[in-house]
Amino acid sequence: MAAIADAELGAIAPLPDAPANPAQRSFPVWRWVILVVAGIYFLIPLYAALKFAGIKAFPDVVKQSGFTAAFGLSIRLAVITTVLTLVLMVPTTVYVHLRLPKLRRVLEVVTILPIVIPPVVLIIGVLQIAPAALKGSPNLLGLEYVILAMPFAYRSIDAGLRALDLKTLFEASSSLGANWLTTLWRVIVPNLRTALLSAVVLTLALVLGEYTMASLDLYQTFPVWIVLFSQDSGPVSTAASLLSLFVTWLFLIVIVTLASRGAKRRGGAEVTLFSVGRQGTGDSS
Fold first, then answer.
1. CATH fold of 61-273, please?
2. pTM of whole model > 0.90?
3. Which residue stretches of the chain are H helix?
4. Would you kindly state where each structural domain of the chain is located, as residue ranges?
5. pLDDT for 91-123, tens place per residue?
């Protein structure tokens, strides 16, 4: 019996090793070289600016006159621009993808115009046609930023929609009795979480760093305040520039962290600053 058992065990071939996960493969050397070179390229100027300004200059930035108003205006414009951009671009892009696919080329051309046309030309045109009530309000600057954010928001949303089968999703939702808006809010938007996150990140970075339109519109946003204040104190102005950069990074990290936690709870895509990956199930089959 022992011999039979040994023969049976010997007949069982060992299972082949599971294929290696691409994410677990060794990182190519040339990628490390590119990351190191890019890191040095970006970190050396930041280190030089930090050394020039000094740590003690950062508390002085908050104490300067006009800082609170300028920083608060930039945050307000960032929120207004982000909300308006998503409200306008998401339904428009979904409708074009679903009902008017032949107009996608036209929409791509239209949304690329803010990059081609100089901001000076855009602001002059807007000031010529804007209502008088808006000309005296900083909300006009938020509308102008929506135009500047269109190229980035549209391409992020468009890339997310290309990965979805919109027709099938809408037909399935309609068969369950949902109307167009309900399908958009409860079916399409959750599947565009990563694309919308990219649009929000790009829009925030644009608004918090835009200078030309704000200066021509005679509004003192945070970038405009930094330029005006740089004539009085070089170290404090440099510290303010670094503070603006750090605040932008903080917003991006908070947005990505919240989106990643929501994705983990729902079993969706894991969103990071550098990649988007599918959550593992823990199975090793």
1. MetI-like fold (1.10.3720)
2. no
3. 2-11, 29-53, 57-63, 67-99, 104-116, 119-129, 132-135, 139-162, 166-175, 180-183, 189-191, 193-209, 212-216, 222-229, 234-266
4. 61-273
5. 999 999 988 888 889 989 999 998 888 888 888
